[in-house]
Structure formats: C-alpha cells, structure tokens
Amino acid sequence: MLYIIGLGLGDEKDITLRGLEAVQKSQKVFIEAYTSLLSFGISSDGLSTLEKLYGKSITVADREMVEEKADDILLEATSSDVAFLVVGDPFGATTHTDLVVRAKKLGVDVKVVHNASVMNAIGVCGLQLYRYGETVSLPFFTDTWRPDSFYEKIQRNRKLGLHTLCLLDIRVKEPSLESLCRGKKQYEPPRFMAVSVAIEQLLEVEQMRGENAYTEDTTCVGFARLGSEDQLVVAGSMKQLLEVDFGPPLHCLVIVGDTHPVEEEMLDFYKLAKKQGQA
Amino acid sequence: MLYIIGLGLGDEKDITLRGLEAVQKSQKVFIEAYTSLLSFGISSDGLSTLEKLYGKSITVADREMVEEKADDILLEATSSDVAFLVVGDPFGATTHTDLVVRAKKLGVDVKVVHNASVMNAIGVCGLQLYRYGETVSLPFFTDTWRPDSFYEKIQRNRKLGLHTLCLLDIRVKEPSLESLCRGKKQYEPPRFMAVSVAIEQLLEVEQMRGENAYTEDTTCVGFARLGSEDQLVVAGSMKQLLEVDFGPPLHCLVIVGDTHPVEEEMLDFYKLAKKQGQA
C-alpha cells in the first residue's frame, strides 16, 4: 500500500490523526523535499521534529529522486506499507498525480490522506472560494525569459469580477545554466518569489500591455507562511503592498475582484491603514 | 479565544493534531450541524464517536443557533477558550466568515485550524486545481423556482477549456413553506442533491437554452462521500453518470474542460467502462 499523506501548511502538528496512523504503520516513510524544505524549514539533518513526533525515521526525497526513482519507492509499496509525505494536500502538484498514475499501473494500492492546501486556506482572508477564476503562476523573470501569459487570465477574471490566486515561483534544486552547459549538475541556491517581486513583475507587464487589466491601485491580498502560527495576511493596493516586508517564505498573492459586503468586512480587518492604526 | 477548527471530510480521525489540541484545551465545544449531520452521520445522540475521541462533550449548533445566538457563543469566548468545529475547512461557507467578523468586532481573538475541503480534495480525480474556472452552485429546482444562472458560468469555463466544480444543494432544517405561512416553524426532512438529479437539471437547462454549453456526451466526474473510506469517484459522460448509483451523501460533480495528458491518464482510472471491466 502506498499512502500519500498531506501534511497541511504549518508544521508537524498539522498532520491529521488518519495521516499519523498511516505513517506509524508504514515500514518506510519518504518526505517530498521540493516545498517542504522551505515551508517546514527542513534541512538534511533537520527532520528530527517530524521524526520525533511521528516516531519514524524519514527519508527526504528530492524532485530528482521522486521523478527518477519512483519505481524503487513503488516496488517497496507492493510488498509493504510505504508513506509518502507531501506539504499541503497531495494533489496540489502534478508530480504527485504522476506518482499515483505510476502506482496504479504497477497495481499498487494507493490511499490518499487529504489536508489543507494553499488552494483552500486562502479562504482565511474572507474572499469566497467560489468567486475565484482560474489560478495563475508567476515565474521569475530572467533577462531573456519574461513570459506573461498570466496577463490574459487575470484580465479575464477581473472582467468577470472574479478573484485571482497567483502562485509565486519556487526554485529549489534547479541545475544552474552554467553547470548544464558543462555537463555536470550543480545547483542554484533555493529561491522563492516574494510578494513585492510578484507585484513588480505584474506592474511591468501591465505597463508593456497597457490594457488596464489592473493598476497599482488595484486591491490585492498578500499572504506569507499561510497556515503557520506566524502567518501574515495584508490587504491593500499593489502600490501599498510593495512596501510591506512579508518576511520568510512561502508567499502568495490574490488580486481581488468585485467584493460582496461580507467579503469587504473581512478584508477590512487585513487592510494596511487599519493594521497600522492598531499597531 | 475562539478556535474555528476544520474537521476535514471523512470522519473523526480527519482532525489535525493542532485541531485536537485546541479542542482538548477548550472549555466549550460546538459543532456546526448544517453539513456535519450528513457527512458525519451525526444525530442528536450520535456524537459519541467524536466525543469519545476528542474527550469532550460537544454541543450541536444548528444554523439558527449559529446565526441567532452567535453572540452567546462569542461572549463565552471572551473569557475562556471556545472551539467551533466545522466540516471541511472553516472558510468553505459564508456563515463562518460572518462568525469571524462578529468575533473580531467584539475583540475576541480568533484562531483558524485549516483542513481539507471539497475545494481542494476534488484534486484526487487528477484534474489540476489551477485549471478550474468559477465554481457554481446547483439549487434544487421547484415547480416555480428554476434559477439557471450557473449556465453562463459553465459555458464561459468550457469556452476557456476550464473545469467546473458544481456544488450540489443541501437542505437541512429548512422551514417548510406551509409552516411559514402558518407562522409556526416546522422543518422539511433533510435533502441532498444526488449526481443524477444535478445532471437532469443541467440537461433540462441546456435543452431550454440550446447553446451547447455542454451535452449529454460531455465528460464529467461524479464524487460521493469525498475523503471518506468509502468515497466513490466515477468519470464518464453525463448520460453514463445518470445511470450510476452513487449511494449516500454528500455528492458533487465536476464538468471536465480540456485535459492535459497527465489529467487524462488519471481520469482513465475512474472511467466507467474500465471500472466495469475490472468488476
């Protein structure tokens, strides 16, 4: 049996009782490193909090291992219980869908233990989840690569009065371009996109396109460390949020569409002026 | 302190460790009855499984109580710890947003414990969550009330190649029309919309509109008891799903947009012909 277990967003205590039971009865436990490195602050020797609480030794599986050695993991799952731990919910990322497809093809039984993910936890800001349009991903711009296909999607959502969740780029264990040219893999240091960088890129694209999909006065909500004890949620115009230090990762951003009165009331609690007044 | 704690989708074991800790240190524990009655099979004397596991007595708060007596609940939370348990994630429904707004106005500290909800657990069928358009709600049609504003939304999503999550009507403790006329509240028996009823209503509206937003050959995914041990997920055309007995509540439905290869591979596992072949 392969258990794919969502860990939720905060720390080791966000696992469900069902998930913990599955971990405890598994002979082998893997944790996906791609996002857990950032959200749980897990380093190669920093698993101890999780290992202590779960009572199991845990193997960190980086993206290469998941993609290249999936069959080894699955082979173990044919004859014993294997737990694969994932930050958030198991189906937030394509990689895990792929793992399930491979498992099913090999005839390995799969059980999924759900948990909170960014996709539903953003509800905390008060904007109703059923009033979101298509989600967009904002990649880090480079000198030569500045893709802006998100622009039309945001524009479309806003014309319909819908909110837009922007997932911000995470780069963990990316081979550097230089090392690829040399034929020997070396990795860039991990990077995550901050709210301010996201807004700068959004405004740069708006300036180029000039179709007023949004402006620096458009209301947004910035999130940092969503679901953690020290999460930060701030609502304000793009211009205002540019000045906010959201601190450590992970960040995400919502571009607000038309709001209903209850949504408006909740947003007010997170608005910048109010927050400063309270401080 | 007011803790608003998501219970997840399955049963009492889907609470997180963080949530359980908060329940255990609360002086008073309420559970929202609106959906928990159906999903957890909780009747007035059927709370014992939860109460046993959580080690606390729990008060069932129906919608009237939440809406009319919120201030009593909040008053208790000013001087002690109060836990308010909610099926799924706390921000799936407007009612809870409203409770948070009231709490903040009264100066009551609020902590949210997130969990899985329909909005992210539908990821299990393999359709990527960032490729969904606006969510729609399908209300029970009556002889005189057949609202169809969902039609344009589905049409729009499909034109863009996006998937559409249809939330199906739940009617718990609705005062009957007759009783309202008599001025004395009596309640209709609880009803939940089955996948087949949802599809019948969708096809009726398509026939009236005739704009080919979808047809009986459009691929959909029907879900029953999502996140439970006995969940059922079946993919097929509307016509095919009409014939499937999805069993007890809750149900929901996804109308599939354009699919990527990985999405297609996952959907295949849930397709009807395949399932029958395996049986």
TrEMBL record, chains A, B:
GO terms for molecular function: diphthine methyl ester synthase activity. It catalyses: 2-[(3S)-amino-3-carboxypropyl]-L-histidyl-[translation elongation factor 2] + 4 S-adenosyl-L-methionine = diphthine methyl ester-[translation elongation factor 2] + 4 S-adenosyl-L-homocysteine + 3 H(+). HAMAP family: Diphthine_synth. The lineage of its organism: Eukaryota, Viridiplantae, Streptophyta, Embryophyta, Tracheophyta. Pathway: Protein modification; peptidyl-diphthamide biosynthesis. Keywords: Methyltransferase, S-adenosyl-L-methionine, Transferase. It is an enzyme of class 2 (transferase). One of its GO terms (biological process) is protein histidyl modification to diphthamide. S-adenosyl-L-methionine-dependent methyltransferase that catalyzes four methylations of the modified target histidine residue in translation elongation factor 2 (EF-2), to form an intermediate called diphthine methyl ester. The four successive methylation reactions represent the second step of diphthamide biosynthesis. Residues 1-241 form the Tetrapyrrole methylase domain. It holds the Pfam family TP_methylase. CDD domains: DHP5_DphB. The keyword tRNA processing does not apply. This is diphthine methyl ester synthase. Signal peptide: none annotated. SUPFAM superfamilies: Tetrapyrrole methylase. The keyword Ligase does not apply. Its EC number is 2.1.1.314. Belongs to the diphthine synthase family. S-adenosyl-L-methionine binds at residues 9, 89, 92, 117-118, 168, 226, 251.
